[in-house]
Design brief:
The protein is mostly helical. It has a domain at 1-10 and 18-77. The protein has eleven helices and six strands. The strands form three sheets. The protein has a two-stranded antiparallel ribbon with strand order 1-4. It has a two-stranded antiparallel ribbon with strand order 2-3. A two-stranded antiparallel ribbon has the order 5-6. A hairpin with a 2-residue loop joins β2 (11-14) and β3 (17-20).
Length: 374
């Protein structure tokens, strides 16, 4: 566990003069210069309307983070750079890179994938954070605390607190709107980015391990891990009576948690394997949407099983299942419906040059493409 990697100073001394770095400071000036360059370059290609649609929201969000959010995160030593936040950015970068590589062979240029990634990433964060805040609302809104006072904690994404399944509705809606706006085939676009999403999930779970969240239950296997005092699993074990109360190092206290499953690393390995499988399945897919359907089928199954190891989520809605397991069942039902719908869609064919032509042949009654005519 390495929750905080280092601190960024909020002020910078230049020539004996102390200047603000965050807020209305040097970092905002750098953002303004970079934003101006990006807008000028985009104007030539897209015009004012296209530039506003493509860059307006991302520039506004990053500018707001620098001007208002970063100063609010100052803990006296500076702005903490969290391991979770760093891995979250690495996840976005790695997933986008893989999607760009895949997009080249599927007819999507790099600019399209980058624009899609920015929209899906930002709206996915919104959904994932809202789901977490709603699920753990007592943590953000204890008695007597106003909504305004809770805003800094709600916006502190780098400290952890995202629910992957919460990102699905907002991210899916953002992807649908993006595809409709640019008149792109949604299913082919989903096939393109599906493995990249899993690569991002794998890196994000490593961030969970650094942060100590999404932890597993007791474990006596050789690879069991212990977490330090005041980490999420430590607080949970104290609350359950598995560890004695009192400060770390006091009589009868080891200071660290009992050995637990590294559930975060299990999830990272699982996502990496599923990403590899989805990429390997791509040339075998016969219809647009089948790669995404495969991911939508397998990930809920593995997540349902991983929840049997995790102990950070209580049973939900009067069932013995966690909220993530219930969502997994819903996603499995949606995956079944998607496979059923895809079975009636045209299958691909390969032309004389060996290139894949999307959705040109209707399947026969047995689900197989008809034999070519001599």
């Amino acid at each position: 566990m390495l929750s905080t990697l280092f601190h960024i100073p909020t002020r910078l001394t230049v020539g004996g003069v102390s200047l603000p770095l965050v807020g209305c400071g040097l970092l905002l000036c750098v953002w303004a210069a970079c934003a101006a360059v990006a807008v000028v370059r985009s104007l030539a290609a897209r015009g004012w309307y296209g530039t506003a649609r493509a860059l307006g929201v991302p520039l506004a969000v990053t500018g707001g983070l620098i001007a208002f959010v970063l100063p609010a995160l100052d803990d006296g030593q500076g702005v903490p750079v969290r391991g979770y936040g760093v891995m979250l950015l690495a996840a976005a970068a790695a997933g986008t890179w893989l999607s760009i590589r895949r997009g080249r062979s599927m007819g999507f240029d790099a600019d399209t994938i980058i624009a899609l990634a920015m929209e899906v990433f930002l709206w996915g964060l919104v959904g994932a954070r809202l789901f977490f805040v709603i699920e753990y609302r007592d943590q953000f809104f204890p008695p007597g605390r106003s909504v305004l006072a809770a805003v800094p904690d709600i916006l502190n994404l780098a400290a952890g607190g995202l629910v992957v399944f919460g990102a699905l509705p907002t991210a899916a809606l953002a992807a649908w709107r993006f595809a409709a706006r640019r008149r792109l085939p949604l299913l082919a676009l989903a096939d393109c980015v599906a493995p990249g999403l899993l690569v991002g999930l794998a890196l994000g779970r490593i961030g969970c391990f650094l942060n100590g969240c999404c932890y597993g239950g007791a474990c006596d296997l050789p690879w069991a891990v212990r977490f330090p005092p005041h980490s999420p699993p430590w607080l949970d074990q104290v609350a359950r009576g598995l560890l004695p109360h009192g400060s770390p190092g006091s009589a009868g206290s080891s200071g660290w948690t009992l050995p637990v499953h590294p559930a975060q690393l299990y999830a990272a390995i699982d996502a990496g394997l599923l990403a590899t499988l989805a990429a390997a399945f791509t040339p075998l897919a016969r219809r647009p949407g089948e790669v995404f359907a495969l991911v939508l089928t397998l990930h809920p199954v593995s997540r349902f099983l991983l929840e049997l190891i995790r102990v950070d989520e209580p049973p939900a809605l009067g069932t013995p299942l966690s909220i993530s397991q219930l969502v997994s069942l819903v996603l499995l039902a949606l995956a079944g419906a998607l496979w059923w719908w895809l079975s009636g869609q045209p299958v691909d064919r390969v032309d004389s040059a060996g290139r894949r032509v999307r959705g040109q042949i209707r399947p026969t009654a047995d689900g197989m493409p008809p034999e070519p005519k001599p």
